[in-house]
Amino acid sequence: MIRVFEDFDFSRVGQMQSLLEAQGIETFLKNQFGFGGTGELPFVETVPQLFVVHEKDADRARQLISEAQEEPVSAATWTCPKCGTEIEGQFSECWNCAEAEDA
Ligand SMILES: [Zn+2]
Asked: Which of 11, 31, 52, 87 is buried most deeply by CB count within 10 Å?
């Protein structure tokens, strides 16, 4: 098994698992119960970790995960309040009339 992702936030790890499973990649979760109960283990041992079962899927899995992580939080398209032009989320000003998004 190949470890492809780990995060202290288990919901994030679960999210990546769903993403990979949706692509037909077999996955395995380790330490999904996170902290508590196993207080004697070193810190790193209790980080929820996501593995792929088959080594051949590892590259694709990492690719999918990195794409998912790069997605900007505020990438939603917005409409200029002044001229009504649709603006892509990465721009904070209207390219048509230079009105700011929050104006
Ligand atoms: Zn505008």
From this structure: 52
Please give the average per-residue pLDDT across 58-66, as a whole number: 96
What integer best gives the mean pLDDT of the chain? 85
Element (H, E) at 4: strand 2-6
The rounded Å distance from CA 77 to ligand 1 centre is 13
pTM: 0.59
Structure tokens at 97: 């009339």
The Cα–Cα gap between 70 and 1 comes to: 25
- Where residue 88 falls among pLDDT bands split at 50, 70, 90? confident
Query: What is residue 102's predicted lDDT score, i.e. its pLDDT?
Result: 72
Q: How far is the CA of 95 from the centre of ligand 1 (A)?
A: 7
Cα–Cα dist 33/100, whole Å = 45
Radius of gyration of the chain (CA): 20
